[in-house]
Amino acid sequence: MSLTKDTETVVGAGFRKSKKSWSGWMFMAPFIVVFALVLLAPILYAVYLSLFETRMIGGSQFVGFDNFLRAFKDAQFWDGVLRILKFFAMQVPIMLGLALAAALAIDSSRLKGKNFFRIGIFVPYAVPAVVATLMWGFMFGDRFGLIGNLNEFFNINIPSLLSANLILLAIANIQIWTFTGYNMLIFYSSLRTIPEELYEAAELDGANQWWIIRSIKLPALRGAMVITTVFSIIGSFQLFNEPNVLKGIVPNSITSYFTPNMYAYNLAFSGQQHNYSATIALIMGVLTMVIAYSVQHFGTRKDER
Amino acid sequence: MASSKKSVARWLSVTATAAMLAGSLVACGSSDKPVETPDAGDVESALDEKSSLLVWGWDPAIEPVAAAFEAKYPNVDVEVVNVGTNADHYTKVQNAITAGKGAPDLAQMEYQAIPQFALSDGLADLTELGAKDLESKYTPAAWNNVLVNDGIYGLPWGTGPMALFYNSAVFEKHGVEVPTTWAEYTQAAKDLKAADPAVRITNDSGDAGFSTSMIWQAGGQPFKIDGEKVEINLQDEGSVKWATAWNELVQDELVAPISSWSDEWYQGLGNGTIASLTIGAWMAGNLESGVPDGAGDWRVAPMPVWEAGDTGTSENGGGAFSMLKGSENKIVAQQFLEFMTASTEGQTITLETVGGIPSTVAELANDEWLNREWEYFGGQKVNQVLADSANNVITGWQYLPFQVYANSVFADSVGQSYENRTDINEGLKAWQSTVAEFGTQQGFDVTSK
Q1: Contact at 8 Å (CB) between B196 and B203?
Q2: Which of A84, B16, B206, B427 shows its CA 20 to 30 Å from the CA of A123?
Q3: Which PANTHER family match (chain B) (predicted)?
């Protein structure tokens, strides 16, 4: 979006009354075409779908905003939304905390073999979500996995992380494992942009490492914090792969409406309720946008102060 | 500025129109194309022309049947694609129907799935293609499964009368008799677990197909369908009878909480920690190919009954092949359907590949098939047990016209009873209310008792 705006300004300022004002649009055209086809058109189609209801008996009819009203009263939908918020509150602070610690450690120049650590922490990000989930899923089981073996070997009783009340932790674990390295890299690259002079000045003032972290590094990371938080919000709201794959291993621990995305998917493809599914998807899209936007707004305003 | 804003607005409206058009095109895609019943000449010329068929299904016998058909009609090219099993397969079929293109000509369709796809206008009615004349070839029970509101929405390929598959080595080792009634079954479950804490009589983590089959055998009829009228009562006598008996098995951890078809399941079947399965006849071939370690140990016995002396059984799985409404090659597709399901050639290939129970009268009474000694089952004449079960299936059972959806939310309700080891009857009630709500929302006239 911001790209479009910038171009508009340039076009408007430079060639206001000239016929050549179209040349800018021509450069933009490939982007606009793709943008319209892969983003705008599906959204508009979803809006169109959400205004109808197709029944097995009676066919399709226009119902206005009935689907939206239904969603606002749908306990299963809100159950999924709440679960995602819980997941977000639990997973994101741990993940970003670990990523921050790792980035600071690698940046501290006191770590030996930092390239090895940097790649080592980042590698899980390269593992496809489905593979990662299956791998962890088989470790978590108390009958067949690592936990089961530990229980058997030490004759103890660690509960299965795949049971219904702990499975959210299992999913958080998988996501932390996958995405810590990715966030670490964002933090680390922003740390690299801090000018050396600041460190030299701090040293002259007699600051120790903790003061340097508190007064130079952390403030410099604020922008990266906002970005990673926004990415994490979007990631949490899109939660689908991990629970959907785990459902294959432990069907009773994960309901068909475990996350809003799974709910929308099952409504569309098992229940043939495409219209209602589109409605759920739209509401989730708007909800994600609002929350992500307010975090960004709040975060950057603090930054400017 | 102003002009560029305007063009953005124009862009938006163009895209919007395009999206609406796309929407209405999809809607048109599934409209009726009237088909006239072809005569012999039409069929012959269609088969002589170069043509191709796309078949989706997961059964290993489809490939060899397709190869035989291609050998008979060299101008027809049959492509077989396995897009997934059960739910995955139906999701993809549903996607293709909704998208209006990319759908196969023919798709494997379990009996319980046929009504949902037929009612939502995804399947071709084979009446127009002359399928009515084939009725006498199939067993009445099999034929009944492909009829929806007087239309014929597939040709039956195999049935799944239930039987007890058991690992005789495990039973013998622990000195436990093979159960003939469900009371004996519970006792055998206790004895096996007491003899070896790692052994369970069977696995069950809550499976909609298994539960409905068990309710069926217990004399329940929770779903009664009459046109658009749907009556649901998952607390009728048979349902309660099964759920109450099964409560004990689940709550006392007498069954392994392992999902069927998982790696763990195959492992358990192979190493003897899952000692038996009450399942459809098609399991014979699946055991042979999926559990090679059990060769020689497994046997087949009649499905346990509720009272000594009862004979009634039920079906589990089994299915047909259906033609998608959008198929552009209906005459050839119909010929392939008939070849696969009704001809001796097609049925013989199927029975040799996967075993199981034929859906045709001729093959079911074939002595050679009946007397076949199955090496995997220690030379037992397995087909006789399975054929007996086929003849004893309790009639009158009906599935919901939206069973695929109902089964997809089974874990949300009954599955929770399994997970928490609470009363399965409560799970059944919760399932009923979800299913009834869905039915009403889909325009059915639902009575929920």
Answers
A1: no
A2: A84
A3: ARABINOSE-BINDING PROTEIN-RELATED, BLR3389 PROTEIN
